[in-house]
């Protein structure tokens, strides 16, 4: 066997292969269990504080925190379901109307184009008209067939039982993890030497600090975005200010997406339909929100988690491809876990080729 392929290198290769296989095949179907374990870790400090302050048993403190978590999640879900999704369904139902309005506006622009292009060859004018007409027809059919589609709605309704099973598994696993977390911790430490246990302690404390810092940073930035959006929309469109501010706040909380996903189609629609004033105000608000996000987020993130923007982008992209939407958070979490293990000395990363 060549000198390079010693036992240590072979162990590293086997470990990497096992982790890769787990990441590709096991982890994606274990999202409810992984999410429950991570949530239990986040709620454990509240359990310990409640137990210490009121001198009660752990099971009772776990039950209180779990019930409070259920109430908060239930109220949030109720608000999102009744308000945000209701508005989204109404918007989806009115998409054909919006497309027809845009088509009517284009007919007016088309007449102006004909009068302005009298000196151009007829073939050029006809080609422009055909291309734009085909574009609007394809957009209209795509929106009405792809988004307002009974087959997709029925498939979503058919998948509701699977979603309910995942939620039920998540809640049961969360409660059991919260109860057994000290036993799990003790079982892990039982198989560690004193030196390794110190490293794991350092890694977990560092990981908790960074993860909480990440969530705190995201929350602070999203609160600033929500306040700026609400104030702006109360001035621009007060009838939709609260609902749209909540929608933009929820979307903006997701990394890499941002409020521009909501604002850009909104002001573009008003520009096309001829409402230049409202479209301009919405475009200015979108620019302000983008500037706030791009100036505040790097400073807050850098101070709280210490990850470079490039590493965060790569982690979020790979997480999205492997785990779906939750990968936006799982990817950076794995990167933070790796960095914490490297700082604790558990993972040796000093090598030369």
Describe this structure in words.
The protein is mostly helical and 353 residues long. The chain has a domain at 199-346. It contains 13 helices and no strands. The protein has helices spanning 7-26, 31-54, 58-93, 95-116, 122-147, 150-158, 160-190, 194-236, 241-253, 260-272, 276-304, 309-323, 327-344. The radius of gyration is 27 Å and the shape is elongated. The model has no long low-confidence stretch (mean pLDDT 75).
Elements, N to C (H/E): HHHHHHHHHHHHH
Query: How would you classify the helix and strand content by structural class?
Result: mainly alpha
Q: Bin the strand percentage.
A: under 5%
| Radius of gyration using CA atoms only | 27 Å
Q: Kindly state the number of beta strands.
A: 0
Give the averaged pLDDT, no decimals: 75
Based on CA inertia axes, which overall geometry fits? Answer: elongated
For the terminal residues, how far apart are their CA atoms? Answer: 19 Å
**Low-confidence runs of at least 5 consecutive residues:** none
Given the structure, what is the number of helices? 13
Write out key terms for the chains shown:
85% helix; single chain; YtvI-like; Membrane protein; transmembrane helix; AI-2E-like; 353 residues; elongated
What's the short version?
The chain is mainly alpha-helical and 353 residues long.
Topology summary:
Layout: H1 7-26, H2 31-54, H3 58-93, H4 95-116, H5 122-147, H6 150-158, H7 160-190, H8 194-236, H9 241-253, H10 260-272, H11 276-304, H12 309-323, H13 327-344
InterPro entries: AI-2E-like (IPR002549), YtvI-like (IPR014227)
Subcellular location: Membrane
Membrane topology: Multi-pass membrane protein
């Amino acid at each position: 066997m060549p000198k390079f392929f010693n036992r240590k290198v072979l162990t590293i290769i086997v470990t990497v292969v096992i982790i890769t296989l787990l990441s590709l095949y096991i982890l994606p179907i274990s999202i409810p269990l992984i999410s429950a374990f991570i949530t239990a870790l986040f709620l454990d400090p509240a359990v310990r504080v409640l137990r210490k302050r009121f001198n009660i048993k752990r099971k009772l403190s776990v039950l209180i925190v779990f019930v409070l978590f259920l109430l908060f999640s239930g109220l949030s879900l109720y608000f999102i379901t009744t308000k945000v999704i209701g508005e989204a369904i109404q918007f989806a139902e009115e998409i054909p109307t919006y497309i027809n309005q845009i088509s009517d506006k284009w007919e007016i622009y088309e007449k102006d184009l004909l009068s302005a292009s009298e000196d151009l060859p007829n073939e050029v004018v006809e080609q422009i008209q055909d291309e734009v007409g085909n574009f609007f027809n394809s957009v209209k059919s795509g929106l009405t067939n792809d988004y307002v589609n009974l087959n997709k709605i029925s498939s979503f309704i058919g998948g509701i039982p699977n979603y309910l099973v995942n939620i039920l598994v998540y809640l049961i696993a969360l409660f059991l993890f919260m109860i057994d977390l000290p036993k799990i911790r003790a079982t892990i430490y039982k198989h560690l030497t004193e030196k390794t246990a110190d490293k794991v302690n350092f890694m977990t404390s560092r990981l908790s600090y960074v993860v909480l810092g990440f969530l705190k940073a995201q929350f602070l930035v999203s609160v600033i975005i929500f306040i700026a959006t609400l104030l702006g929309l109360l001035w621009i469109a007060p009838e939709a200010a609260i609902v749209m501010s909540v929608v933009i706040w929820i979307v903006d909380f997701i990394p890499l997406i941002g409020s521009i996903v909501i604002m850009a189609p909104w002001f573009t629609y008003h520009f096309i339909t001829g409402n230049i004033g409202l479209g301009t105000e919405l475009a200015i608000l979108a620019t302000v929100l983008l500037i706030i996000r791009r100036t505040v987020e790097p400073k807050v993130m850098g101070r709280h988690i210490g990850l470079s923007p490039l590493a965060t982008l790569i982690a979020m992209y790979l997480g999205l491809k492997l785990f779906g939407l939750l990968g936006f958070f799982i990817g950076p979490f794995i990167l933070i876990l790796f960095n914490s293990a490297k700082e604790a000395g558990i993972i040796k990363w000093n090598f030369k080729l």
